[in-house]
Amino acid sequence: MMHLIKNEWRKLTLKRSFIVYLITIVALLTFVAFMTQLTNDLDTPVQNQEGEIVESESLPKNTPIYGHNQEGKPFTTVDSTIDYLNEQKENFAENEDALKQINTQLDYFEAYQKADVTPITKGNGTVSLGAFFSSIGDMSMIVNFLAVIAASIIMAAEFGDGTIKLLLTRPYKRSQILLSKYMTVILLSVLLTAFTLVATLIVGAIFFPIQSLMLPGQVSLGATPALISAFQLAGTNLLAMLTYVTISLMISSIFRSQAMAVGLGVGMIFSGSLVNMFIADMIPKYPILKWTIFNLLDINNFATNNPIAGDLSFVQVAIGLLVYIIIIYLVTNFIFKKRDVALT
What parts of the sequence cross the membrane (predicted)? Predict the structure, then answer.
């Protein structure tokens, strides 16, 4: 079995496409970092109470801005921001959602106040390495896309090239052959995730000012250190990625079509948000819909401090996705063992 996995891994990593995957991740990270730096390299305008920009009061790009009061005037110190947020807590004491958001912001600024460090924000003309790293350079969707392509190729190519018949003549069961390919795709998913973390850290250090990764990375994540935020996002996205590649492997095995497997896999990635908009509206009336795979694939929300429709916990979502993965794989295995490949 290990020999099969090693052979599949060798075939996958020796292809040009494998190097292309890694280059694509680095290239896109560099592009995102460059554009982030470019769009933030501007003076920050100040608005009056009517929302009109006061050109004469525009602040230089190296002036930190941590928020604005009701008149549109910016806060340029951590202490003034904390004071304002504490005032807002009293004003929104009856609004649970607003109070939660205010407390999250307070946690962020109080962490920096305690460390006696000035947060680097867009108001300083850029973002910090921590902010870029904690979001993994917004690369989650792209990494999932690359993993789906690999999962689609690894089985469909055997049918397309006619090598599936030669593969099945080897002294291995069909279930072992399928499992070896699946384990290879899982290993690739883990590798792409780890590579993205390292590449994000390196690219971020080149483009952005460095602050301790044990300080918070984003206001929306409260006091969670940037390092922890990055690994949380990588972990939740890895579970979603494994779901996507399992589906792609099933489609390529059943329909023998790489194009169909890639198309449906990518379609799920890019259409998930749109589908979830409808599901979220229907869940109050039909609670069972909270267990649909599209809703569970929003697991990254736990790493970005956003709720999942249906008020599911992380454990519930993780178990739900694992159940889907197991069921999909078992169906794939059953069909592959029964498949007649004589005409391929």
Answer: 20-38, 141-161, 182-207, 227-247, 259-279, 314-336
